[in-house]
Design a protein that fits this description.
Structural class: alpha/beta
Distance between the termini: 14 Å
Low-confidence stretches: none
Helix content: 25-40%
Strand order of the largest sheet: 5-4-1-13-14-15
Largest sheet: 6 strands, parallel
Mean pLDDT: 97
Radius of gyration: 18 Å
Length: about 260
């Protein structure tokens, strides 16, 4: 029976520029067995094309259609909800701006004409950007975020991610953001399972290193879930959490034993 495997990237397939031991062999094992494999990341500072090229550089033979990131889901959502010509004010980097523009969404620096505010990971985040987002919200703009991750795993530790910037905006508005597009959202799960893999949820596995995004999305969507301890979550964190995966492995290598 054909199964679908949804892999997170950072902390699951690689850490920074270092491929996690066994990741490529596991991918090849699954493909050779006739299963469908896609890669889904919340990380919004690179484009789908860049992720595709990085994976292929590591030896994965994949196409861009196998890679989904939170920018892409955000752009699809706005494409379906905004009226033609309506503007978006964004806090984010070039990869997000390019994805929005590719979807025909107008990005504006004038916060008072913004119909929506998009919050993302921005390594040049400033008070001025925070204030513009706040003023757009006061003017009635919907506030959405690409992803909720507080940190991003890198070789040797973690660095602040989009969740930190969401915290700043929510601190100013006193309200939660209206929508998060990336994992663990239903938007992301529906796109990947129903439109990309086109398989029953019970035949799909969500594989990732983060309980509150990867595993939570899998559980919410009725997928089987595999937590790997090669990224931000360690064994103690997994044991203490109320979010319980179907399987817990040290790394993706162990998927070959399923």
């Amino acid at each position: 029976m054909v199964k679908g495997f949804i892999f997170d990237l950072d902390g699951t397939i690689y850490l920074g520029e270092k491929l996690i031991n066994g990741a490529l062999e596991t991918y090849q094992f699954l493909v050779n067995a006739g299963h469908k494999v896609v890669f889904v990341t919340n990380k919004p500072i690179s484009s789908r094309q860049e992720y595709t090229e990085k994976l292929n550089h590591f030896g994965f033979d994949i196409s861009i259609e196998q890679v989904i990131n939170s920018n892409y889901v955000t752009a699809l959502y706005l494409q379906n909800t905004l009226q033609a010509g309506e503007g978006v004010y964004m806090i984010g980097e070039t990869a997000l701006k390019e994805e929005l523009e590719l979807a025909g969404i107008r990005v504006t620096e004038n916060e008072m004409e913004a119909k929506s505010v998009v919050i993302s990971w921005d390594r040049q985040f400033t008070y001025d950007k925070l204030n513009k987002a706040f003023q757009a919200w006061k003017n009635g703009a919907e506030v959405i975020a690409t992803n909720p991750d507080r940190t991003c795993p890198i070789e040797g530790g973690e660095i602040p991610d989009c969740g930190a910037i969401i915290g700043a905006v929510e601190g100013a508005t006193g309200e939660k953001v209206d929508l998060i597009a990336g994992k663990p959202s239903e938007l992301m799960a529906d796109l990947v399972v129903n439109h990309l893999l086109q398989l029953p949820p019970s035949s799909c596995y969500m594989v990732g290193d983060r309980l509150e995004t990867d595993i939570q999305m899998g559980l919410d969507a009725g997928l089987q879930t595999i937590l790997v301890l090669s990224g931000v979550t360690d064994a103690k964190m997994a044991a203490d959490s109320t979010i319980k995966p179907t399987f817990t492995f040290d790394s993706v290598r162990e998927i070959q034993t399923l």
